[in-house]
Structures are given as structure tokens and as C-alpha cells.
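About this split. The held-out portion is used to measure sequence recovery: a designer receives only the C-alpha cells and must propose an amino acid at every position. Recovery is the fraction of positions where the proposal matches the reference. Here is one held-out target exactly as it appears in the evaluation file.
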């Protein structure tokens, strides 16, 4: 978690840093800050407990003016409460070295104790501050005080001091460091937390993700673990932690900066819900027909032999991506491939049972979720190959997985995942059909029909979105409820879980997703008179059973809203209906999830919650 920005060039650094922080706020938003160098006054530092808008206002009162180098940070607290003192950037004793950090320094207490003994004064409760004092200590050790104030003398010393400090750190970090005596160079380092360098003309950038600098450049270099960068306005040099130079060729990012803007919508979440037809279209494009699979094969490079020989699939993911994995299980198993799904955070023990016969599919929008990355490493250690489904080019997952299938959803900014989920579902369907064809588990004609149905989905999602007003009315009716129950069966059971998760995370009310058939085994006891129950009841072989479960809930006083299609509606008796277009049962989650996302959005809107930045959360969870 946490977002880092860095800038060096000709423009006022704080303008660019703050703009970048606003785009990175999804990574954490409990406090933030910037530091720069004012050529006349020295170190410039502004920090607030709260959001980037508050920081912006603070800077406006006392701007940096001529400073053209700086670093910025937006925080999701791990060590130390959200407060101004704990906000980054952190400084050394002399206010000369300043640093922003994302990650966790596991041995910071040890380092801090040593530094306290040598007289360092700490101003915060963070793990990060230990690093900045450690760099100060290393600078002292290089005897810089006697060195000429020339950049060609000081810059190598600064680099060496940071490198030596980093060598003592345990844990995960992405960091950017600035030394007031060396204003022509920023240093960046990465170990298990993402960091990317943006290459402009006469200006360069450091950021946790490309959205922070896309407005200025699309050329980027993703640092690898164990690498540092010395970033000047006209050049960037890359090194490993041993100080040896490494080469990088920049990649061109296809996303454009407007994709990360609200485009007239009140919230990113609403915009992203409405972008879902495109997310599915882009994720399916060119990957379904012809069904020989050669295009996909070339793209992900997954050998047919491996696909033919595996005995099963193990999906690992977190949160919404885990729900996509649960849908994936029904889809793969529909085509005869046994599939298990685990929360990445619960996978550790199960990792021992995977081997080369099991293909791991790791699903992650960000590609940076620590639990997922850890699970991937464990699975690889057990001999399994890993296929990543991710939305994020250059993410750690893409580097650690053996094969990658990208969802092409564009940047997802809302903390509540919507379009990334639908992209993950689309990717599951693409893979399942590809595997089924290669494993000869499906006739070509059936595969073609399945593909054709899938290709209709973007238009059907558009139609489902047209029901938005009806969803709004129902949401307003239930806006004061403190408990919600979502029920469904079979392939829509994960959609019930997803509907409940969406409400919990953006409205802060209690919501449960439950397998409709399980209700009678205990949870039905929680139903009280007037309790909102949302039931997915689209046409399926389970429909009559779902209808029974709805009756059971109603008999105990529940006020049921049924998600139906035009055919199933005739068979379901509910208080409210939300109609989605009919599609093949196996594809129905792609449509049934739409009203549930809208429902959660409208409930949160009625409750005046901070929809894009819900309390206690961050978009990428990079701690375990
Ligand atoms: O980036 P990832 O897909 O790995 O993130 C996984 C979860 O943290 C994420 O889906 C989270 O549950 C969302 N906030 C849900 O809306």
C-alpha cells in the first residue's frame, strides 16, 4: 500500500507530485506529504494527516515556487497511527535527507535501537524513519563533510550511502530519497514493492504506478526487485543492490491519462461499472475465434502439452479476484477440468499438495497483492507452473508468474473492484474454452457456439446497465437497512458473495453472501421481518430450488429482491425485481453481478459514504 511520487525536471515539483498523489490516492489515503528543495531556503516539507486535497491547500499557502525536484507520498498506515508526524516524507536529524517509503521494514526496531544509541532523534513511530537515519549515518561514515560541494563528488557518495543502508534492511520497500546537498539527483530503490520510473524529455519521474505520470510520459521502466535507480533530469541509471550497473529498455504504456479520470461520472466506481462492456470486449478481443487457440497460445506462451497433461487447476486470489476464481471453478469444471480455489492468504499449507500436474492460476487486478505473490512463490517452490490473470503490465506478478494473461480493463481507480472483476471473469471463460479445445473436452461446434454467446455479452451488459434507475429505486428503499443477505446457487453463488462484499466495503453495513441451499442449515435464523434479501434467480437448472429458498426466506419475513431474466421472472414471487438479459446459464454471472454492483453503489451514495476511498481500505494490499 501507499503511493510514492518523485519528480526532477524544470517544472515546479509540487504541482506534479500532488497531481500524481491524487492519482495514487487509491493506494492509501490516511495522510500524505511532499518534500522538495527550495534553492534559496533549503528543504521544503509539507505534510498533513488526511487527504491530498488538504495537502494541496497547505502548499497553496506556502508554495515551493522555484523547486524543481521533490518526492511525495500518500499513506496507508501500518506502523504508527495516521498523523502528521507519521506522514511521509521522513527526514534525518539535520533535515537534509528526506525519504518516502512503501512497504514494511521488518528489522526497523533493531536498526532504530542502534541509531538511538548513537544519538539520533526520532520524530515518528514509523518503521520508515529508521531508514532515513540509517542513510544519514552512512553519509557520515563516508566523511562527506570534507568533500567538495560538487555534484560529481557528492552524488556517488549519496548513492553509496543509500546502497549501504539498503543492504541492512529486511522486509519490503519501494523508496525515493532526496538529499538537500545533492538536488540534481533522486535515488529510487525497490524490493518486493512496486516502483516505476517515467522517462520524459528533460524531466523524469518516480512512482508506485504509471498512472501518476501518464499525463507527462508514456515511457516507463519497471524496476526489478533488488534494483536502484539514480534519476536526474536528463538521465536515469540503473544498478543492482551490489552497485553494478544494469540495463533496462523502456516500455510504452498503452493506457492514457484520461482513462484514470472520472469523465463526467460522480465517482470512479460508477464510471468503472459503466466501462464494463468495454472491459469484456477488450479482454475477449482476438482470443476466442478461430478456436484453434493459436493466437492465445502465442500470446500467453502456455505449452499445449502442459494444458493437455495437467490433472487440475488451483486458483489463488484475494477479495473480489477470489470471487472471480470461484466462478472460474464452475467454468473449468463444466469442461471437465477439476479445479480448486483458495484465498491466497490461506493457501500456505495447501501449497505443499500442488506439483507439476496442477496449474496454478493467480488472479490479481493489481498484480501486487502481497498474499497472492506469497502464495505464488510457495506454489512455484512445490513445482507447479503459474499462470497470472492480471490487469497490470509490469506488476510483480507478471514477473514472477510463468505465463501471463492480461485483462484489458484499463486503470481501475475505485477501491471497490468492478470492471477488473468482469475482466477476470472474461479471462476465465477465454481460458476455459481454450483448455477445453486443446484437451478435446468439447466439440468444435459447441466451442464455437459458446464463443458466439460470449461475444454477445458486452451488448447484454449494456442492456443490464440500462436497468440502473430501477436498481436506484430499490436501493433507496433499503438505504437505512443495517443488514443485507445475498443468496444464490451454483455459478451465481460467488456473485452473492461479491454483492455482499461490495456493500460491506463501501457502505460499512453488515452483508452476507450465502449459498441459497445452505440457509436452512443455520443462517436462516438471522432473517427478521423486513430484512432485505437479494436473490439471484435467473434461468438455470437450479431455478426451482432457488424459488424454494426465496419462499423460505419470505416465510420468515424477508423482503426479497429477485435478480431475474425475462423468463425466470414468471416463476419467482418477490417484492422487487431487477431484470437482466437472458444468456447461457454458465455465462450468467457476467450479467447478474451488474445490478449488485449498482445496488451497492446506490446504497453507499444514499449513506453519503466516501465511495471511491472507503474507510480503512486501500486499493492494492501490499502487506500480508
Ligand atoms: O489487486 P487484487 O485483485 O489482487 O486485489 C485483491 C483484493 O484486495 C481486491 O479485490 C479487494 O477485495 C477489492 N477492494 C474488492 O472490491
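Reference sequence for scoring:
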Amino acid at each position: 500500500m501507499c503511493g510514492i511520487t518523485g519528480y526532477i525536471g524544470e517544472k515546479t515539483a509540487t504541482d506534479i507530485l500532488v497531481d500524481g498523489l491524487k492519482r495514487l490516492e487509491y493506494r492509501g489515503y490516511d495522510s500524505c506529504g511532499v518534500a522538495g528543495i527550495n534553492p534559496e531556503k533549503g528543504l521544503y516539507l509539507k505534510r498533513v494527516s488526511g487527504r491530498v486535497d488538504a495537502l494541496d491547500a497547505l502548499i497553496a499557502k506556502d508554495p515551493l515556487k522555484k523547486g524543481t525536484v521533490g518526492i511525495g507520498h500518500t499513506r496507508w498506515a501500518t506502523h504508527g497511527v495516521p498523523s502528521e508526524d507519521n506522514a511521509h516524507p521522513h527526514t534525518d536529524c539535520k533535515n537534509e535527507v528526506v525519504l518516502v517509503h512503501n512497504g514494511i521494514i521488518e528489522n526497523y526496531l533493531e536498526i532504530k535501537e542502534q541509531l538511538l544509541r548513537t544519538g539520533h532523534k526520532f520524530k515518528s513511530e514509523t518503521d520508515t524513519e529508521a531508514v532515513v537515519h540509517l542513510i544519514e549515518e552512512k553519509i557520515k561514515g563516508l566523511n562527506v563533510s570534507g568533500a567538495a560541494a560538487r555534484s560529481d563528488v557528492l552524488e556517488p557518495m549519496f548513492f553509496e550511502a543509500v546502497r549501504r543502508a539498503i543492504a541492512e534492511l529486511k522486509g519490503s520497500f519501494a523508496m525515493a530519497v532526496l538529499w538537500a546537498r545533492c538536488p540534481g539527483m533522486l535515488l529510487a530503490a525497490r524490493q518486493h514493492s512496486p516502483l516505476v520510473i517515467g522517462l520524459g524529455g528533460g524531466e523524469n519521474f518516480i512512482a508506485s504506478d504509471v498512472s501518476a505520470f501518464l499525463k507527462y510520459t508514456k515511457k516507463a521502466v519497471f524496476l526489478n526487485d533488488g534494483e536502484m535507480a539514480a534519476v536526474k533530469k536528463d538521465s536515469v541509471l540503473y544498478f543492482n543492490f551490489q552497485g553494478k550497473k544494469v540495463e533496462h529498455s523502456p516500455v510504452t504504456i498503452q493506457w492514457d491519462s484520461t482513462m484514470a479520470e472520472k469523465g463526467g461520472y460522480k465517482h470512479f466506481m460508477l464510471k468503472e461499472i459503466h466501462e464494463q462492456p468495454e472491459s469484456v470486449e477488450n479482454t475477449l478481443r482476438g482470443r476466442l475465434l478461430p478456436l484453434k487457440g493459436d493466437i492465445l497460445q502465442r500470446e500467453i506462451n502456455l505449452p499445449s502439452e502442459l494444458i493437455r497433461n495437467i490433472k487440475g487447476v488451483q486458483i489463488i486470489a484475494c477479495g473480489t479476484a477470489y470471487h472471480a476464481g470461484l466462478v472460474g471453478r464452475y467454468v473449468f469444471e463444466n469442461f471437465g477440468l477439476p479445479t480448486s480455489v483458495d484465498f491466497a492468504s490461506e493457501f500456505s499449507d495447501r501449497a505443499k499438495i500442488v506439483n507439476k500436474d496442477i496449474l496454478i492460476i493467480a488472479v490479481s487486478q493489481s498484480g501486487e497483492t502481497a498474499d497472492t505473490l506469497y502464495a505464488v512463490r510457495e506454489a512455484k517452490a512445490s513445482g507447479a507452473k503459474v499462470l497470472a490473470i492480471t490487469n497490470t503490465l509490469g506488476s510483480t506478478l507478471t514477473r514472477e508468474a510463468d505465463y501471463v494473461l492480461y485483462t484489458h480493463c484499463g486503470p481501475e481507480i475505485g477501491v471497490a473492484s468492478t470492471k477488473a472483476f468482469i475482466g477476470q471473469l472474461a479471462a476465465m471463460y477465454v481460458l476455459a474454452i481454450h483448455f477445453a479445445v486443446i484437451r478435446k473436452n468439447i466439440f468444435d461446434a459447441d466451442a464455437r457456439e459458446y464463443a458466439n454467446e460470449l461475444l454477445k455479452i458486452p451488448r447484454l451488459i449494456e442492456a443490464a446497465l440500462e436497468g440502473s434507475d430501477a436498481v436506484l429505486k430499490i436501493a433507496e428503499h433499503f438505504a437505512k437497512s443495517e443488514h443485507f443477505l445475498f443468496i444464490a446457487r451454483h455459478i451465481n453463488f460467488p456473485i452473492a458473495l461479491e454483492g455482499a462484499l461490495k456493500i460491506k466495503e463501501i457502505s460499512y453495513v453488515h452483508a452476507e453472501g450465502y449459498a441459497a441451499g445452505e440457509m436452512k442449515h443455520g443462517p436462516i435464523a438471522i432473517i427478521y421481518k423486513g430484512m432485505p434479501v437479494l436473490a439471484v434467480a435467473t434461468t438455470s437448472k437450479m431455478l426451482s430450488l432457488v424459488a424454494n429458498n426465496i419462499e423460505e426466506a419470505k416465510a420468515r419475513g424477508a423482503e426479497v429482491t429477485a435478480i431475474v431474466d425475462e423468463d425466470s421472472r414468471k416463476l419467482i414471487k418477490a417484492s422487487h425485481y431487477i431484470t437482466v438479459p437472458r444468456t447461457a446459464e454458465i455465462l450468467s454471472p457476467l450479467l447478474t453481478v451488474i445490478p449488485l454492483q449498482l445496488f451497492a453503489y446506490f446504497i453507499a451514495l444514499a449513506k453519503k459514504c466516501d465511495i471511491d476511498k472507503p474507510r480503512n481500505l486501500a486499493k492494492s494490499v501490499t502487506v500480508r
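Annotator remark: The mean pLDDT is 93.
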